[in-house]
Specification:
The complex is a heterodimer of chains A (165) and B (97). Chain A has 165 residues and is mostly helical. Chain A is 85% helix and 0% strand. Chain A has helices at 2-24, 31-69, 79-112, 114-133, 137-160. The two termini of chain A are 35 Å apart. The chains are: A mainly alpha (165), B alpha+beta (97).
């Protein structure tokens, strides 16, 4: 769940930031560009999740094995390691899929018109905030405000430092 | 004579991590060991990260070395061997009272 939500937010912000200058300068985002950028963003996010989760999981496994046997067991592969690796791969895959969804949510509407992209971003923020808040209106407002701020900051950075013109 | 006496039953005090592996996994892996006919695992100690287990393995000519190896492969460790039965049949447990 953590990587699903993180992935969607990451996809939204990264794709929005990278294409902000192009969107607001009246450039054309065609469907091919939208797909290509989404795959690149999703792949980078998945690789980051893979490395981060792998190091976290392996440290946890090392500590758990140490607590059981009270000695350092380096280089020995156990069922616990295999399970940790499986969880890591699952997290990376979740990150890829959710980042792809997040990036496509901005770029596909943008390939029709830039205003549609902004509407899609707003709708995504509402949906993600609702999911994260779990029924609490106070938390919904907090999440929505935080996400809006993050997206706005991303767009500003994208406009200030145009990568794709 | 000269042949290795067959282990019929062995009771092992072992420990496994609480995360990433369950006693079901341990039982299934131990059951794959040569000569094992039945495995019974009881949790007798629960710590934050460690489960203490009482493992009873019964069968015909059980390979203890392989049992220990399997326990290590699932991330566990043998603390002690609490009971062992070697021979043609399983005798009744005795008392020293």
């Amino acid at each position: 769940m953590r990587y699903l939500v993180l992935g969607i937010i990451d996809g939204l912000i990264t794709a929005g930031t990278l294409s902000a200058s192009l969107m607001f300068s009246g450039g054309v985002i065609d469907i091919e560009f939208a797909l290509a950028l989404s795959v690149v963003v999703a792949s980078i996010n998945a690789l980051i999740a893979l490395v981060a989760e792998f190091s976290h999981q392996m440290r946890e496994v090392r500590e758990a094995i140490y607590r059981v046997s009270l000695r350092e067991e380096r280089g020995k592969w156990t069922l616990v390691h295999s399970r940790a690796l499986y969880d890591t791969l699952k997290s990376a895959l979740s990150s890829f899929v959710s980042s792809l969804v997040g990036a496509l949510a901005v770029l596909i509407p943008a390939s029709y018109m830039p205003q549609a992209a902004l509407l899609a971003v707003a709708a995504s923020i509402v949906v993600i905030s609702l999911l994260l808040a779990g029924g609490s209106w106070v938390e919904f407002i907090q999440f929505a405000a935080l996400l809006s701020l993050a997206v706005a900051f991303g767009l500003l950075v994208g406009l200030a430092f145009p990568v794709i013109k | 004579m000269g042949q290795r006496p067959p282990i019929r039953r062995i009771v092992i005090d072992a420990a496994i991590p609480t995360k990433g592996v369950t006693i079901v996994d341990v039982a299934r892996e131990l059951y794959k060991v040569a000569g094992v006919k039945a495995v019974r695992i009881t949790v007798d100690d629960v710590d934050v990260d460690v489960l203490g287990l009482a493992i009873v393995v019964e069968g015909v000519d059980i390979d203890y070395g392989e049992l220990e190896e399997v326990l290590e492969k699932v991330g566990g460790v043998v603390h002690s061997i609490d009971e062992v039965v070697v021979g043609e049949y399983v005798p009744e447990a005795g008392t020293t009272a």
